[in-house]
Design a protein that fits this description.
Helix content: over 70%
CATH architecture: Up-down Bundle
Largest sheet: none
CATH topology: Rhopdopsin 7-helix transmembrane proteins
Number of domains: 1
Number of helices: 12
Length: 309
């Protein structure tokens, strides 16, 4: 399995050779399965969300942002990552290597940050319900998502540009990866802020929710109270993010500290869990967001009726 977060130490004396086709092993096959199913489920959920009249509120903006970032990751990162896994060295040009790094670094960060905004939205509704009801509107949600996207592009695209300028040898020598050691301080800050802080915000949600339930405070936020299953959706989304991202984050931290790319015990499990995130999101939406689910069931009933006629 190839990773776009490999380290440069072990590649200094590698001789350039023609890429060797490695065949379809478990990792590219698993990514292909997740690519196909993920595109189907995310696109279907996005379409149903946009065509559900009752799903026109501020909270829906975050869910649509998550689905859109999932599709961006699936369409950009997964196909190029499959190609990367099929060959011993990067078989395409430098520009497409940059696209792969963008998909792995930026688009996946967008998904994590939009999950974090969903959690912050819940914090606001629980801790300051009156302010939430008065000030939180679709325009507010769009602003939060837009600012987050601009910030991630400014910080992480910069890392990719610096990677190409600072790299001392051709990518064909070591496959397409982000040379962390060439800009270790900057990448370390990005990991800590863009990933670590987002995960901490999401990880704190169970405690905040438990404290809220314990104190039996009533949430006034209308969007949380309308019985659309969004409270359950947020809880399940929080759990899925922690399961999918925390093991991967721990592994990346260990690799960063050890300054090497040697495979660690449990890396395969952490990788697989992380790759599952774009598939879990739409499944959770289908199962917990009632307006979207009713739209899906209604279309299914109409299709069955049309086929039976």
């Amino acid at each position: 399995m190839n990773s776009s977060y490999l380290f440069s130490v072990q590649y200094l004396n590698v001789t350039i050779e023609d890429p060797e086709f490695l065949g379809w092993t478990f990792y590219p096959a698993a990514k292909l399965f997740l690519l196909i199913t993920g595109i189907i489920f995310n696109a279907a959920c996005l379409f149903l969300s946009l065509t559900t009249p009752s799903f026109r509120n501020a909270f829906a903006v975050y869910l649509l942002a998550v689905l859109s970032s999932n599709l961006l990751t699936l369409l950009i990162y997964y196909p190029l990552s499959i190609i990367q896994d099929l060959y011993s060295q990067w078989p395409l040009n430098h520009a497409l290597c940059g696209v792969l790094l963008y998909g792995n670094l930026v688009s996946r960060s967008l998904c994590l940050h939009f999950h974090g905004l969903i959690t912050l939205n819940r914090y606001w509704a629980i801790l300051a319900p009156l302010s939430y009801r008065v000030h939180h509107a679709p325009a507010t949600a769009v602003t939060f998502c837009g600012v987050s996207a601009l910030y991630l592009h400014a910080t992480e695209v910069t890392a990719i540009v610096l990677d190409f300028r600072l790299r001392r040898w051709s990518i064909e020598q070591a496959n397409c990866y982000l040379d962390v050691m060439a800009q270790r301080v900057y990448i370390g800050v990005i990991y800590a802020v863009n990933y670590g802080v987002a995960l901490l915000v999401i990880a704190a949600y169970p405690y905040v929710l438990w404290t809220h339930v314990r104190q039996k405070r009533k949430v006034v936020g209308a969007e949380v109270q309308r019985g659309a299953g969004w409270g359950l959706a947020i809880t399940l989304l929080t759990g899925s993010v922690l399961v999918c991202w925390v093991p991967h984050g721990i592994m990346m931290f260990v690799l960063f500290v050890r300054e090497e790319s040697a495979q660690l015990t449990g890396w395969e499990v952490a990788w697989l869990l992380n790759m599952l995130q774009p598939l879990l999101d739409p499944l959770i939406f289908f199962g917990t967001v009632e307006p979207v689910r009713e739209n899906l069931l209604g279309r299914w009933r109409r299709l069955r009726k049309a086929l039976a006629a």
